[in-house]
Each structure stands twice: as structure tokens, then as C-alpha cells.
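dumping this here before i forget
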Amino acid sequence: MVVGVLLILTLVLSACQPIGDVPAAEGQTGAAKSIESMKVAFVYVGPVGDLGWSYAHDQGRLALEELGVETAYSELVAEGPDAARVLQSYASQGYDLIFATSFGYMDSVIEVAAGFPDVKFEHATGYKTAENVGIYDGRGYQGWHLAGMVAGAMTQSNVIGYIAPYPIPEVVRNLNAFALGAQSVNPLVEVRPVWIFAWFDPPAEREAAQALIDAGADVVARESDSVEPDKLAQEQGVYAIGYNAVSPDIAPQALLTAPIWNWQVIYEKKVRDVAAGTWTNEPVWWGMAEGVLDLAPVAEFVPAVIQIAVEEVKEGILDGSFQFFCGPINDNTGAERVAAGECMDDPALLSFDWLVAGVTGTIPQ
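structure:
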């Protein structure tokens, strides 16, 4: 289990400035730059064409290009020494801002940033900051709860599979939100995770999906990046929950919905802040209300009553009336973890290391 000192992320709610030349904020030093003069680089752990995590981030990069920002990217960059090499290369080339979009890039970002104090770095899903290193993430559990509602309503076997990449708090949090969403419409649901220890590994993802189907799952969700589990679900006549992005021509009879990302919202703000000289390393953890994530359209063959129920909860998320991870909640050993009348706060969510009742197995150590 990856454990570290966790920062309490604070929502940044400052209004976005207009595109173009941006004045320097009062009290800031250094000349302001135009958006068009910015050079921004992205480092991806997967391929940009996989409809997965890296694809979703790259859509945000392309949105920046439409605004006139000069961008570059590297895909399929392994976590570890390769990531450090790529980050150092971009910093040496004079890029103003570098986005590192995988949890496992964290130590490489901190290491490289120390040698380039004039370059700003942003690390997705991590928890370490420095004077020129910020962190950002989205509240993915919001979309996963909604997807769980759809899965829970559509299962006939009451067994739902979940392909889990790594045993880190982010994944555990999303898995638990998915299970609670499913249980909210179907208390008999059992969610069975398979841990594949990879973000993008199509053969391993397909193998995991097959194992889950063989074990009785008639809905297979994936927090991994390839669409192989979705394709297998279509082939075998079961349902799928996708992730990151969707394409209507992939598994049209199987795909129920998917939590999807709109990273452009964060990327535009960060670029504007650097251009204005107002950038800070304050953590950003935005959700559906800020437009960072959404739920893909629910399949037309899902009964209308289910779609209406999902929309009602989504409206509650958007207006703040729906609260997540509120008690009573027991873990899957039967121990009470959240008492009635209480809800988990951000520090607890950021260090999630237990599975809710109804999720099978244990978190690998």
C-alpha cells in the first residue's frame, strides 16, 4: 500500500481570467506573459489514442492549443527513471509549465523540479508539493458513485466485477464509491475487485475481465485504461462500465456508462495563472460542480426509471445537497468505520485504506 504524508486539498474557486494578455496580479513579481507565448508540456503514462486516462488528459492539451498555447507531449512514459529523464528534457528546453499526469511520477517531479526553480510543475493525483510544484486531481468518486447506481440496477446475478489498477487511496476511494452507489439501488450487490498492478495493460485487463465473468459477474467495471474489458463484455453478452472517455462504436450493446474527465478546466486555469504570474502551489481537488468530470450518457437501453434516479443524485452533487461516504458505513469485516450522522472528511478520503461492506477480498499490501 502506498502511504505518505497527505495534504488537505483546498478548492481553488478564483474566477478565470480572460484569454489573451493577462495582467500581473498586485504584489506579484516578474512580467506577465501572453497565453500565446506560453510553452506547456505533458507527460503521459499511457498512449493518447487509447480512450483512457492519457487520452482524456490529451484532450485538455488539445484545448490549450486551440487557445494558441504551444504544447508538447510524451506518451507511454514509464514511472521511474524514464519519467525523470523526460521531465528534465522539457525543463531544459525552456517550457514554462509541465504537467505530469500519473501518480507514480511523483518522486521524479520533486527531484527534477529542484533543479529548475523557474519552471512550474503540476502533478496529477499526488500529494507532494514544492515551491514550484503544485498538485491537482478530480473528485472521481462522484462519477463512480453514479456509475455504480447504473451497474447495481442492471445486474441480474448481483455480482459486479471491478478491474482495479493499483492499491492506492485514489483507486480504493473510487472502488468504494462505486460499491456504495450500486448498493444504494440494490442492497444485494457484491463487488469483486481484481488488482492488476497496471494502469494500461490490455492483455491483463482482458484476462481480469474474463476471470470476473467466469466468477459470475454480469457487469464489469474498469478503472484501467484500455477498452479490452468493454469489448470482452460485448462478446460475452454482459454489461460494461467504462472510464475516462467513451466511443459509441465500442461495445454499443454492453457499455452502460462511464465516469469521464474534462481536464481542460484545470489546465486552462493553471496556464492563465502562470502567464499572469499568479500561480501558486495550492492543491486543487475539483469535482462535477467545477466541470472537471461528468458521467457519460447512460445507454438508451437502461430503463428510464434508473436514468431518472441517477440524474436526481447528479443534481444533488452539483448543488451540494448530496453528501458522500456518510454513515453508518461498515467495512467488509463488519467493523463500523463511519458512524450514523457522520461523513468522511477530505483527509479521510485522501487516505482511504479499507473496503466497504459488500466489496470482497482485501487491499494488497
